[in-house]
Amino acid sequence: MCGIVGYLGPQSPKDIIISGLKKLEYRGYDSAGIAILDQGKTKRVRAQGKLKALEDKLVGEKFDGHLGIGHTRWATHGKPSERNAHPHQVRGINLVHNGIIENYLDIREELLAQGADITSDTDSELVAHLIANEVEITKDLFQAVERTLGKLRGAFSILVMWEQQPDRLIAFKDGPPLVVGLGEKEMFVASDVQALIQYTKKFVYLEDREIADIKGNEVKFFSANGFPIQKKVVELNWNPEMVEKQGFAHYMLKEIYEQPRAVASAIEPHVNPETFSVALKNVGFGGVSVQKLDELDSKADWAKTQEMFKGIERVFIIACGTSFYAGLIGKYLFEQLARIPVEVDIASEFRYRNPVIPPKTLVMTISQSGETADTLAAIRMAKEMGATTLSVCNVRNSTIDREAHGHLYMNSGPEIGVASTKAFTSTLAVLNCIAIALGRTRGALDEKTEAELVKSIMAVPSQMEGVLAFDKYFEEAASGLKLFRGFLYMGRGTSYPIAMEGALKLKELAYMHAEGYAAGEMKHGPLALIDERMAIVMVAPTDHLYEKTISNLEEARARGGKIISIGTGDNEKLRAISEYYLAMPKAHWTTHALLSVIPLQLMSYHLACSLGYDVDQPRNLAKSVTVE
Predict the structure, then answer these.
(1) How far are the Cα atoms of 71, 87, 152, 513 from residue 95, in angstroms, in the given order?
(2) Minimal CA–CA distance to 479: which of 620, 614, 608, 379?
(3) N or C: which terminus of the chain has fewer CB atoms within 10 Å of its end residue's CB?
(4) Domains of the chain: which residue ranges?
């Protein structure tokens, strides 16, 4: 989840940009850079690693200019390195980019055929080449950007400057957020108001496919086809709570938007981006206390974990609520990638059904808080019966974390909203890592397949950025959606647990009737509920079950159900039979659930808001269920 900061004005661009990038450190990054126009030429400094590395390189550097851009990067195309760090520089064009260019391979081939000198592995540099080509024709940066915008597909926010127009910045977006800050005789641009709130309270939020043309002390806004548009200036008078919420209306919405960073943090300890392999870090099966996990020899700890994995013959996943649905997806992952049988239990049922836990069983518990009473009781019972236990939680040193034999963490940061969002997707990311590690250790996956799976999970944070664009869609649709008398959520494969999670979110937040079903079960009861006032939410990615899912969808439609479908790409068939169609990026079946759950979170959030409910504190619910 990259960070962008730009400045045009009388103050030091270096100081403004570095200060702003520090405010965006919560997003996570692996390299950083800055470019400042100084006496007609751009001085660019980049560094791999944390922002401190860039600051160290800037010590002693003096800039006389008044125009600059800066960036913190989370790698998607190309490994973390200085050569892949932003800003990118092509024939006087300097550019920073957040997001992903989906058609970058086609653009790259076209540029190489033209003889372009491409110096990085990124998709971002290619946009700089396109703009540089256009500006040689138009001699105007705005026209060059306008001509380039139509050539890009994906989710992106971009800020660009040109040495030949030293008092100008152009910003444009289609997906990830971008905001223009209005100061006194100075202008700012950033990917988050948090970076600029110390300098100005006045902001203009860019919508998708809008362009901001900043010249001197003025800014004009245009549509993608160059027509002038009027934009509302928003004045933020933040109190301390709003600063903590980073400008979002609710903690839940903030946490939904934090999911790209949360997933990146969840996989970072375990994934090697150089070899595209997984080695679970600091699990602690050797009996090391939770407080000393960071002192472990990682290689020795991983060897012990692998030894344990090789010896297990069955996995139990125990959890409650949202964590239980994550566990159901874990069952698909573990059985298909590691070829090991898995049972998933609701903790409160597991305790009382007198379960049979055979020898060589791994019992895994999932709990955001690490204090869930039923889950804690289940892990204690499993230990008494001789099972090896592994906890996946978000709170280090919580009771479940301390009592388990092994320990893994969601790393999603504090989750304030009662309805879990980022902890759920972080859990799915961790389960992907465990499944890959299990499969590789047990010989069920080869090295090539492991690499493909790792690349898929590494791509998720950037893909999530694009999916978050549905926020505005559901905000506008909420007034119509709240008129339905009920919602049936359906899916097959890993989309079935996602359907149940979507239904749970609607019940938690909007207090509306909602049920999640396996789509193949429609004939066994749910069809009786369907009429023109029933919404059918179908999660239907293009996978091996797609055709069967479409058949189930037609059955619902034939009985008057109004269809809200989530599919892959521009699916004309789904679009034609749906009242609302949401296009997800193409993703591996192991990671699609991390993307398709986001629209369901946003739909529940906006429906609840339209009904006037407190989404952060739903009635009768608590964040941590510490009693039975």
Answers:
(1) 9, 5, 15, 48
(2) 608
(3) C
(4) 3-246, 254-463, 469-610
Over range 2-18, report the average pLDDT. 93
Can you state the angle between helices 422-441 and 259-267, rounded to 10 degrees?
30
Share of the chain above pLDDT 90, in %: 57
Distance, in Å, from the CA atom of 475 to the CA atom of 597, rounded to the nearest integer, reads 17
Burial status of residue 489 (CB atoms within 10 A of its CB: 0-12, 13-18, 19 or more) = buried
The H or E element that residue 565 is part of is: strand 562-568
The beta strands (E) that lie in 394-470 are given as 406-409
Supply the residues annotated as catalytic: 2, 623
**What is the Cα–Cα distance from 7 to 63, expressed in whole angstroms?**
13
Sheet with 562-568, strands from edge to edge, namely 514-518, 486-491, 534-539, 562-568, 580-584
Mean pLDDT of 597-621: 88
| pTM across the whole model | 0.70
Task: Name the nearest CA neighbour of 127 among 103, 233, 142.
Answer: 103
Q: Which of 3.30.70.100, 3.40.50.10490, 3.30.70.20, 3.40.50.360 is the CATH number of 254-463?
A: 3.40.50.10490
CB atoms within 10 A of CB 384: 9
Contacts of 321 (CB under 8 A, 6+ apart): 420, 504
With CA atoms as reference, report the closest residue to 149 among 229, 224, 227.
Answer: 224
- Cα gap 427→392, rounded to integer Å: 7
Please tell me which residue, 558 or 576, carries the higher pLDDT value. Answer: 576
Nearest one of 466, 486, 447, 493 to 588, comparing CA atoms: 493
Q: Could you tell me the two tokens for 624?
A: 């941590």
CA 147 to chain centre: 30
CATH number of 3-246: 3.60.20.10
Please spell the DSSP secondary structure of 103-154, one letter per residue. THHHHHHHHHHTT----SS-SHHHHHHHHHHHHHHHS-HHHHHHHHHTT--E
Asked if 364 and 316 touch (Cβ cutoff 8 Å), the reply is: yes
Provide the 3-class DSSP secondary structure of residue 160.
strand
